[in-house]
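User: Can you help me understand a structure? I only have the sequence.
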Amino acid sequence: MKTRAFVRYSKKGKIVPGSLILTAGSYPQGSSTWKEVPADLCCLQPQDYSSCMALQGIPDELLNYGFSLQTDGSGPNMTGTIHWAPGVQEQFTLPSDGSTYDFVYTFEDAAPRTVYLCINNPFQLSDFELGFGPGNTVSVNNAYKLNGLEEWDSDSMSILSLDLSGLTSLQFLFHRNTILSYINITGCANLIDIDLADNTLVEASVNHVLITLDSSGLSNGFVDLSGGTSSGPTGLGALAAASLIVKGWTVNTN
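Assistant: Let's start by predicting it. Here is the structure, written out as tokens:
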């Protein structure tokens, strides 16, 4: 059965951040507020790539959208395809030499777009930077498919909810100054540097980050959850913050 993608619109006609869903069924409930967008899931084909991440983006006034990939410094080349739009694909082969490669696409209009990044050898990807050049991302799906990734950067991108669970290789996480309210880092046992300052993190997310980091048992790390309208830690979250400080961590919260 064909996979379909939908995004939800607010009463003001704007996309609700984080609302992208993928389904094999019909329109979601409340169908009058949902709009179908292209869903070209490359990785559902067995001959295609092993890892595929969906990005729901809105180009900016210059109609550009993109991201940067940095490869590791050894091992096999990284191959992949970017599905910018239906029928528009960009295949690439990146040498594993530690270089950074920028990908950007110019759309004909500012309508929301579902872009798919599909790669083999995800362990060869050391840094993923979302928002190279202009553009705005409102939803990220299947980030766990990039397991092997060491650093995630999505500063200033308007993402309400970010699910990075299962990225066991992730060490560095940077997402500052946006509307981020909900985050899931379950299983990210190697995170040592987390900067989520100036967001809108709810209490449960703040506590989740601190408790997860403390449970991982690493020492001498850095975590910044301060600024913006983010909640301060409470209960077990506050205890986890104190425990991290004893372990040599720098902990900044509201």
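Now, to help you interpret it: The helical segments are 203-216, 235-246. The first strand starts at residue 4 and ends at 8. Let me know which part you'd like to focus on.
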